[in-house]
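Dear colleagues,

As part of the handover before I leave the project, I'm documenting each prediction I ran so the next person doesn't have to rerun anything. This entry is a single chain, and its sequence is reproduced below.
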Amino acid sequence: MRHLARIAAVFFVLVSIGCAGGAATAAGRPISRADAAGAWTLADDENCTFDVRLAEAGTAVSNWSKGASSARGESGRWQVEDGRIVIDYTDGWRDVIIGDSLGGFRKESFGPKAPRNGPPTNAGLALRTPAAFVPWVGVFEVPLAESRFGREFHVAIQSNHLAWKSTDDVRVGSWWIAGDALRIRWANGWLDELRPIGPTFQVRSWKPGAPQDAGGNPTDPPSNTGSARRLE
């Protein structure tokens, strides 16, 4: 029951905070390339938050999970132009992160057919992803052995404590940090754990109803064990 309550609480937070609107401010402080790399939290056209990881090599991966790619999110490339971060995704969308005169940031998005020098398709907040969440947010590719459908699937970890996956009938869950691991309680009762092992991640899964101790830690061996990688 505690985990069901946690999931319900996460949805309440998403509605009350994660989907809250943000006012745009005037452009101001330029962003350098050195400052641009890392993880950013943005808002979509419904003012719900998602995250994008900007690698130093110039690749970009977002965990926006509402599109046709589901938890696979979006991928593309980024660069700094005139003090702004410009992210171009392979689906034709463009996100632009702009510094304001008060030291904050905002985001403007342009649809695939929208003129890049015209008004944005939508706009919203932009901010640095909290440091404690940066090691975890993003899109993870879980190998074939972990999928009962016999194919690779993806798991999106968002900084609003929601998790999404691209397989199964129930695809939403909530996550929390447990020591040096991240655990996901899916709405269908499954429990997944991600633990960093060098450049990859170990994945362990427990079926619904698996025994737990008083602290919520599984006491039986996992039902599945494998490895995953985060897309960069």
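The longest strand covers residues 74-81. The chain has two domains: 22-128, 138-230.

All the best with the project,
I.
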